[in-house]
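Extended Data, panel c. Modelled sequence:
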Amino acid sequence: MRLDPPLTVKGYNGTVTFDGEFVILTRKGFIARSTVGKGEKRMHIGQITAVQWKQPGALVNGFIEFTLPGGNEGRSQLGRQTRDAVKNENAVVVTRAQAAAFESLRKALEAAIAEQHQVVPMPPSGGADAGLAEQIRQLGELHRAGVLTDDEFTAAKIRLIGHQ
């Protein structure tokens, strides 16, 4: 599901772009150089297992953070969450003025993540086996009726079993 145009939201210490398939974190300038480094990080939506959102308050900034499998997440001390997010390469700090745009981005990301991580229901067990058993039974009836020779019956059974 490609978004055209992609959602792009600028935060305090980076820009987040979501094109429907990839989340791209772009960092430029002094803050980037002094914290996680300049550059771009691309994450496929299927790699992201969660989106953590801390709403900015009247006196403190918030952040959006992307959780990846195998990531090294740690709990921040009270009052240090946003300060720690500045140094986290998978997070972007958000001001109050930017919060509404990031809320929209977060909702789009969470919907795409849920879609990527949907569990596909397995067919009921025995469904394929029951179909195979029925086909072999029908072959047996044709063999008993004399429509199939012994060799034809054996070859047909092998073909059926080999396709499973």
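The chain has five helices and seven strands. This feature is highlighted in the accompanying rendering.
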